[in-house]
Prior knowledge:
Chain A is of the alpha/beta class. Chain A is built from 13 helices and 12 strands. Chain A has 2 domains: 3-11 and 257-376, Alpha-Beta Complex (Aspartate Aminotransferase, domain 1), CATH 3.90.1150; 15-255, Aspartate Aminotransferase, domain 2 (3-Layer(aba) Sandwich). In chain A, the strands form 3 sheets. A 7-stranded mixed sheet of chain A has the order 2-8-7-6-5-3-4, with helices on both faces. Chain A has a 3-stranded antiparallel sheet with strand order 9-10-12. Chain A has a two-stranded parallel ribbon with strand order 1-11. The model of chain A has no long low-confidence stretch (mean pLDDT 95). Chain B is built from 11 helices and 12 strands. The longest helix of chain B is centred in the C-terminal third of the chain and has 39 residues, at 240-278. At the A-B interface, helix 2, helix 3, helix 4, helix 7 and helix 9 of A face helix 1, helix 2, helix 3, helix 4 and helix 7 of B. The site of one pyridoxal-5'-phosphate has 16 residues of chain A, from helix 3. Chain A: Its EC number is 2.8.1.7.
Amino acid sequence: xxxxxxxxxxxxxxxxxxxxxxxxxxxxxxxxxxxxxxxxxxxxxxxxxxxxxxxxxxxxxxxxxxxxxxxxxxxxxxxxxxxxxxxxxxxxxxxxxxxxxxxxxxxxxxxxxxxxxxxxxxxxxxxxxxxxxxxxxxxxxxxxxxxxxxxxxxxxxxxxxxxxxxxxxxxxxxxxxxxxxxxxxxxxxxxxxxxxxxxxxxxxxxxxxxxxxxxxxxxxxxxxxxxxxxxxxxxxxxxxxxxxxxxxxxxxxxxxxxxxxxxxxxxxxxxxxxxxxxxxxxxxxxxxxxxxxxxxxxxxxxxxxxxxxxxxxxxxxxxxxxxxxxxxxxxxxxxxxxxxxxxxxxxxxxxxxxxxxxxxxxxxxxxxxxxxxxxxxxxxxx
Amino acid sequence: xxxxxxxxxxxxxxxxxxxxxxxxxxxxxxxxxxxxxxxxxxxxxxxxxxxxxxxxxxxxxxxxxxxxxxxxxxxxxxxxxxxxxxxxxxxxxxxxxxxxxxxxxxxxxxxxxxxxxxxxxxxxxxxxxxxxxxxxxxxxxxxxxxxxxxxxxxxxxxxxxxxxxxxxxxxxxxxxxxxxxxxxxxxxxxxxxxxxxxxxxxxxxxxxxxxxxxxxxxxxxxxxxxxxxxxxxxxxxxxxxxxxxxxxxxxxxxxxxxxxxxxxxxxxxxxxxxxxxxxxxxxxxxxxxxxxxxxxxxxxxxxxxxxxxxxxxxxxxxxxxxxxxxxxxxxxxxxxxxxxxxxxxxxxxxxxxxxxxxxxxxxxxxxxxxxxxxxxxxxxxxxxxxxx
Lengths: 382, 388
Ligand SMILES: Cc1ncc(COP(=O)(O)O)c(C=O)c1O
Ligand SMILES: Cc1ncc(COP(=O)(O)O)c(C=O)c1O
């Protein structure tokens, strides 16, 4: 039996989500911008999904912009705000070295457009240091973008403290919550954040949908020009079935958050117990307390990442090296590099990520399999 | 009974397309970038989809980049070319009748310091290739001309423009073919097209998926970065079910279009004849010749009436048409396209668009004709009594 432990890369679509989408592929296929009834009914479906997202973040529906995914939402948040802020004489961006590529590459792009970018270092647990951030901030800082929870090692950043510092200095704050949404409670009224990225396919919704929460009075230059969709902030005919599915997925994720946390935490514990019992050499990468329960990054020193991955795959267990986007390239993860871990750790790291349908027994089985492979291949005599 | 004749706004997905989308969503949920078997399956599916789409266009699969739709493809093509080649010059040429997703991008670039020539069109809505050539300067990096206009259906001379641009190898040629694919022949490679935009939901495919054809070897500054998917041209986790369904729709449309398009043209002309013989005060916008128009779009204007009123009156009769392009149909302003063709405000605000799809039947068209024959004289009567 195959065991899928790569939920941080993407998740299966929840059956109820698929069910919710199907009518919008068939019977309700119209264009929400059309003024006739066909269009109006579809507009209402998009509005309902916007309400579902808004409720999940405790935002106002008008503050939700639907996009084609997390990458587009990150690009829009960073470029859209940076360009708007430049007009006000602010041309400096602060981010961290451990961000997802959707943020990092956008920052490189902004550098080419003349912005100055500070990439904050992270410590060995993957967290940024607040005093380093405090020093980096200046009157010209346009935006701070720090992810909520890391997609490779699960480390949570001190979001509240970062947000408070940003507020104090009158700087806008974006957080990529793609991995945290559905795991952590995200309340934009209570948390000092101005922009939040979420993505549908990471919470058992369909691929091809994402959203950006944008606070009131946050200046934003749209990046997709054309029709007047999304209050002129994102042109393009809405991906109605995708948006409807995303809305449903968000509703389910928020409603089931506690159970989901408990379930993934149980998987994590089961996995780690097996490793501990086996006596093999391993390290857990990330923060010992502040982590997303569904992401478990483990190194098996002596067994190269790709060799382990291949062997796990042969045994029917799907797991990952770094993030899915970089895993195709087999480079050493920029996140682990930024954490300055020893080379035998960075070169043998595997990400196991739990989600819908995983059980503690599956996690334990995956761990036993990893142990066998490690014994067979690298860590002989252990 | 519902008669849906607003296919230029969006189309009903083909049942086979829905099946593919739903099957893939259920069974192949891996991320194509993942190394494991499930990722591999998803990757192979995307590869097959790319090959299928390439085949329908007669291009190499390497040139197909999947996007989130026509709007993104247009943004990516125009901004991508403008930013990538700004050292060569900062001049663009387009027309006054482009879709907002081309027009507004050009205006945005204008604000950023690019020079943009918006070429005028004739009364049929057509740009003249000579005008394109005359507008070229040593600074020109891109010409963007749509294939079929979404409001009136006029076919632009993209083949002629493509061939005259062969003499200017540094000038790129982008074509928004969102309304033409599956309706009229389209050969980007033979026609000298460097960049071409398609959108799935306009040919019975899924919403939220499009593609951009990029001539092999052409570099573009990407619109979305981070992750490096689609060979770096377009980052973001690929919408695997959507892409598979898009490819299915492209294959079906390429096939069905060949048989169905001539019929659509015939029904359009029959409809027009009936309307013209029985209604007064009706204008036909655009070209009607077989070669000069897309077979599925008919634009009519009833000066003195308001398009919204006609649309709602037809809706009461179970017939769904549109006032103008869906993206702007909420705006009250008269259509920019019709104004560019020389219509007065009064004429332009009374325009409706009837647009057929590959699932339209003759009885749909007849029902629409009958509804217009009932509705228009009534509305004109009301206007006579209450108007002026
Ligand atoms: C933290 C984080 N940000 C952004 C993204 C990109 O989102 P999407 O895959 O929806 O483009 C991902 C996933 O790939 C992610 O894990
Ligand atoms: C000619 C033309 N170009 C571009 C688009 C935009 O495509 P999409 O709706 O996929 O964003 C449309 C449709 O709205 C169109 O008719």
